[in-house]
Amino acid sequence: MKKILPFLILTILTINSDAQIISRFTWETNPTTAVVGANAISVSSYATVTKTDKKDKGLNPGNGSNDINLVLEGTPFNVPAIDISVDFRREESQATFFYRGNYLNFGMNNGYLGVSFQLVNGASYTAINSGDAYAIPDDHSFHNYRFNYDNNTGIAKMYADGNLVYTYNGTAGTTLYYTGAGNVTIGKDMDATGRNVAILDNLVIQKYANALLPLQLLSFSANAKNNYAVLDWNTTQEVHVTSFVVERSADAAVFAAVKNINAANGYSIVNTYQFTDSMPIGPVAYYRLKMVNDDGTFTYSAIKSVAVAGTSKSAISVYPNPTTDYVTIKMTNAAAGQYHYTVSSITGQAITSTDVTLANGYNQIKIDLTKTTVKGIVVIHISSVQGNAAETFTVVKN
Question: How far from 398 is each of 48, 57, 148, 371, 378, CA to CA, in Å?
């Protein structure tokens, strides 16, 4: 059973009270095996596990002057707030505990403990560097070093054996920045000067359980105005949000995208958005927001309905369906404007594509399908050039 110094037990319990472990290594069996989280992708072929001065085992660079270079897959560490704790025995002047290039670099430089990291707020990011915060004892004994950043407060701290040696006071709600960051390297520039002794032990990397809350949709409304459907929404805590996709439906069941609006981002501010649909489906149109994050995940808002005077179910339609030669788009347009339609097969093969100018009121667009050999389901998509209206239909061509 691995023994841990009393102050280390206190430190770990304090961290765990408000954090979730991403990765933990105690190096009791082999260099790449994790106690919590994924095993390492690779490590120096010279690295090994040997006894430490604490009577347990730790990570040893091995014979010769070869850096440990324990590589961990980076994605699990893309967290807004982080806490890193490690036991280290100094045998050299350069040694990096946790390395992701300029994104986050925690370790020893010329015998001094230091950290550099990047923070993002909205579209901009800031590079922070502690400089030489603490002279690491060259006593060939293990000591505990810890760095944490709390995005809720914007405060970063560094400790040596539980004693605070550095504080950064930033902006509350600002997250760590990882766009383009790669894998994590543990033990970069760490070779123990070829002394073949264990120099790393008890690595714990965690994220705060109370880390930055996701996007909050403060309000979302849809109202009729001058035969248009006007959507308004307010948000806060926008971080790593890519866009808002406005989706529309005639039956509140099947939705289609109408407009993509880029997110403004910003954690502690309120962002206001508006979209006007000049071609609503009548007599009642249903709308929802698809809120997309930069990692591809998304959530939906509640569904809102709008009853627009003067519209009907036939406000836009395609006939005949099925057809053998021509189809006609029939629509009642709330405002004059430029429109673009495309026709393609169900597999995406382009059939025809045209720009048209439509007047205010009733319009018909006749589409010739006699020049294509495609049969079966064809897809017709029409949208305004201004980007405030779109509709997609499927037609069977015999």
Answer: 70, 75, 66, 13, 10
Say how far apart CA 351 and CA 324 lie, in whole Å: 15
How would you classify residue 249: left for phi > 0, otherwise alpha for psi between -120 and 50, otherwise beta?
beta
- Amino acid 217: pLDDT: 84
Both tokens of 319, joined, read 């006939």
Residues counted in the chain: 398
**Looking at residue 5, what is its pLDDT?**
39
| Positions of the chain with pLDDT under 50 | 1-17, 212, 311-314
Tokens 């961290």 -> residue:
15
Q: Give residue for tokens 């971080």.
A: 239
SS (H, E, C) 23-63: EEECCCCCCCCCCECCCCCECCCCCEEEECCCCCEEEECCC
Give the model's pLDDT for residue 282. Answer: 65
DSSP secondary structure of 76-124: GG--SSEEEEEEEE-SSS-EEEEEBTBSEEEEEETTEEEEEEEEEETTE
| Cα-based distances in Å from 376 to 50, 226, 350, 351, 395 | 69, 39, 14, 13, 8
Q: What pLDDT, on the 0 to 100 scale, is given for residue 10?
A: 36
| Predicted pLDDT at 317 | 75
- DSSP for residue 16: H
- This prediction's pTM: 0.54
Q: Which one, of 88, 258, 97, 271, lies nearest residue 184 by Cα?
A: 97
pLDDT of residue 236: 79
Please name the helix (run of DSSP H) or strand (run of DSSP E) that holds residue 12, with its range, or none. Answer: helix 6-16
Q: In angstroms, how far is the first alpha carbon of the chain from the final one?
A: 75
Domains by residue range for the chain, with CATH:
6-208 (2.60.120.200), 216-307 (2.60.40.10), 313-397 (2.60.40.1930)
CA pair distance 284, 126, nearest whole angstrom: 48
Q: 50 φ, ψ to 5°?
A: -140, 175
Could you tell me if 176 and 205 are in contact, meaning their C-beta atoms sit under 8 angstroms apart?
no
Q: Which residues are CB-neighbours of 297 under 8 A, at least 6 positions away? A: none
Q: How far apart are CA 374 and CA 346, in angstroms?
A: 10
